[in-house]
Amino acid sequence: MMNRKRAVDYQECCTLSIAHFLLFFLGFSLNAFPARADYFIDYQQSQEVWSVYSQIQQGVSTSDGANQLLNQLLGQPSQAYFGFVYSPVKIDVAQFSFKEFRAEGLGYAVATNPVLPFLNAWAGAGLEVVFGYQWFNFFAGNYFAKYANGYSTDLIDHSVVVADDLKVLGGGVQFQTTWKYTDNLLANLSVYTRHTVFFSNSGTISFNQRWRIEHRIDFLPFGLRFIGGSQPVPGYERSSPVWDYVYQLSLTPDFLTLVGGGISYSTELLGGTEFLAGYFGGYIGGEIAVRGSDQYKVFLKSYGLETSTSFQGQGVRVFEAAVQWSI
Predict the structure, then answer these.
(1) Least confident of 147-161, 174-188, 196-210, 216-230
(2) Alpha-carbon span 14 to 170, nearest angstrom
(3) Which of 10, 13, 280, 313 is the most buried (most CB within 10 A)?
(4) 316 compared with 61, residue with greater pLDDT
């Protein structure tokens, strides 16, 4: 009993230490780093997400209510995300650079097994910092969360929610190159990988890998975009690594879930607007990006995300609004 208590105390101490470090780093960043920086606020959710989370948190009073909740989530995930990202324009020390400070919250719920539905749900919030060295990225974060796992009978008259403390460490490669043939003909190739280790207070350690290749050809005002990799939607490199922990996607899913492509059209409307539509990883999706000035940009998006290894096996439709501005 004493050893267990010491282990718990040690874990709480480590958790507080990491959280305090990240908060101190943010305060130091805002005071010591250059005034010029990019800021990004992002919100996304699927349909009926908040009613689902409320039922999971409170529990249900009848078996019919529990079955209704799990049948609603059976093969149809529900999720939400909110994030704030601070990115200084340029800070290099001996070729190392500070890239991002991220504060975010996210949640996900799905039911599996049609014979006896089983609930998997996770929701949390935390902080993360990202550093770079040439083509390499390194990141670390700490997230405080709650999760719920159980059958329909486990949800009746009580909550099955358990506290979680998730530590995230990882790195990867981010490479990009551009070819300019004429003023109206451009090509861009980007390669992105992410390798992450997750440490949970349940005592489990998990490892996840992601990769992505994107090729873009612009013959203005039109453009073509080709993407390969897990959940091949535009803007994936901005997604939280915690989604890798939540989804636990394999590196070898069905081939059609790994490919996507779309067509874009740019116009001077509202100071500069780009429309993009296509078929990404098995689902139709698209976005509108409006550049009101050199200081800010607004995004409206809707994409389908495959959260299993099967083609169109367990998709979720996500609606997203984001704004990016520079100061």
Answers:
(1) 147-161
(2) 18
(3) 280
(4) 316
- % of the chain surpassing 70 pLDDT: 80
Q: Are 303 and 18 in contact (CB under 8 A)?
A: no
Is the model's pLDDT at 13 over the cut of 50?
no
- Encoding tokens for residue 108? 């996900």
**Domains present along the chain, CATH in parentheses:** 2-326 (2.40.128)
Give the count of beta carbons closer than 10 Å to the beta carbon of residue 51. Answer: 12
What's this model's pTM, rounded to 2 decimal places?
Answer: 0.81
Q: What are the tokens at 194?
A: 């992410």
Residue tagged 């990225």 (tokens): 137
